[in-house]
Amino acid sequence: MLYVIGYILIKPILMLLFRPKVINRKAMFQKGKVIYISNHMVLGDPIAVGILSNRCVHFMAKSTLSEKPFGRWLFRQLLSFPVQQYSADRKALKKAISLLEEGKAFGIFPEGHRCADGVTMDEFDKGCAFIALRADAPIVPIYVMPGAWKLGSRIRAAVGDPIIPSEVKAQCPGRKAVDALNIRLMDAMMTLKEQAETL
User: Do residues 119 and 43 touch, judged by C-beta distance below 8 A?
Assistant: First the structure.
């Protein structure tokens, strides 16, 4: 599997080249089911999440990337599965929940797309909050500073402590729990942005 080969052979090289400087990296080291969320500035963001984690991370990827046979093969090898953007893709939601129920690590960019200007975060879609509540999976937020993949620069990031969906749900039961958790995630990411900017 390409992901495993890359994790073993390429990760050490990337760690040396980009020398990550990370606030609270220990929060990445989670056992069992976990959701990693991150801002999405460039195509390399999934790689940043992958090398900062000690886990193989399954990602959603927009379905247009796997329309052709080679794309489908490649993204499957990279532990990614397709999602229809800007829609309630039930198949993708079920896949994500299934992975978490198996105790695996799942990565998602709650903005649903790369930000237009490469700097500013957009509003979060509610899919991540929905998945987390259904799977009762802790969420670890990560903010990666823009420009992380420029040669000669360092990956600078801030990682938040796990957010427990059941705790949010206990304070805000029913359908409002999705909205409450989504707001909590956005607030956490803004706090991490401020922390990462000090690095």
Answer: no
For the chain, give the longest Cα–Cα distance.
49
DSSP, res 73? H
Q: Of 79, 5, 24, which is closest to residue 46 (Cα–Cα)?
A: 79
Phi, psi angles (nearest 5°) of residue 43: -65, -25
Which single residue is written with the structure tokens 């649903």? 112
Residue 82's CB is within 10 A of a number of other CB atoms, namely 21
Q: The dihedral of CA 127, 91, 162, 77: what is its sign? A: negative
Q: What does pLDDT average to over the chain? A: 87
**Contact yes or no for 38/105 (Cβ under 8 A):** no
Give the DSSP letter of residue 6. Answer: I
The whole-number pLDDT of residue 180 equals 95
**Taking the C-alpha atoms of 92, 113, 144 and 50 in order, what is their torsion angle to the nearest 10 degrees?**
30
What's the chain's length in residues? 199
Token pair 């020398």: residue: 19
Instruction: Tell me the pLDDT tens digit for each residue of 114-133.
Output: 776 666 788 898 999 999 99
| Alpha carbons 74 and 138: distance in angstroms, whole number | 28
The β-bridge partners of 143 are: 158
- CB 131, CB 33: distance < 8 Å: no
Angstrom distances, CA of residue 59 to CA of 47, 151, 177, 195? 11, 25, 24, 25
